Amino acid sequence: MQTRVAIIGIIVQNRDSVAALNALLHEYGKYIVGRMGIPYRKKNIHIISIAIDAPQDVISALSGKIGKLPGVSTKTAYSGVITEE
Questions:
Q1: Can you say whether the dihedral through the CA atoms of 40, 62, 16, 35 is positive or negative?
Q2: How far apart are CA 79 and CA 56, in angstroms?
Q3: Domain that holds residue 71
Q4: Burial label, 18 (beta-carbon count in 10 A; 0-12, 13-18, 19+)
Q5: Considering the entire predicted model, what is its pTM?
Q6: How are strands ordered across the β-sheet holding 45-54?
Q7: What are phi and psi of 66, to 5 degrees?
Q8: Total domains, the chain
Q9: β-pairing, 72-84 with 32-40?
Q10: Contact of 28 with 83, CB cutoff 8 Å
Q11: Strand ranges (DSSP E) for the chain?
C-alpha cells in the first residue's frame, strides 16, 4: 500500500460544525501526523492545518467529508513523498 504526505488546510466559519469536524479528525486520527489550529478572532474564523500521511483515497475522503460540513472550506496540497508500506 502506498501512502502520501499531504497538508489539509481548513477554514471554519460556522462554529456549529466544530463538533462534527473534530469527530472526523478523531476518526482519521491514525493517519494524522500533526494539527495546528489558529483562532482568528478579528475575522471570527478558525484556521486549521492538518499534516497527514495516508493512502491517496483516505486523504481525498477526509478532505471531501470536511468540505461538506456547513460553513467549512478545505484545500489539500500533496507532497511528492510517496512511501510503500
A1: negative
A2: 11
A3: 2-84
A4: middle
A5: 0.92
A6: 32-40, 45-54, 2-12, 72-84
A7: -65, -45
A8: 1
A9: unpaired
A10: no
A11: 2-12, 32-40, 45-54, 72-84
Q: Name the strand (E) or helix (H) holding 59.
A: helix 56-67
Give the domain CATH number at 55: 3.30.70.1150
Tens of each residue's pLDDT in the chain, 85 residues: 899 999 999 999 999 999 999 999 999 999 999 999 999 999 999 999 999 999 999 999 999 999 999 999 999 999 998 899 7
**C-alpha cell of residue 53:** 500521511
Read off the C-alpha cell for 47.
484556521
Q: How far is Cα 33 from Cα 76, in angstroms, rounded to an integer?
A: 15
Q: How far apart are CA 79 and CA 67, in angstroms?
A: 20
**All three cell numbers of 77:** 496540497
Residue 51 DSSP SS3: strand
pLDDT at 85: 79
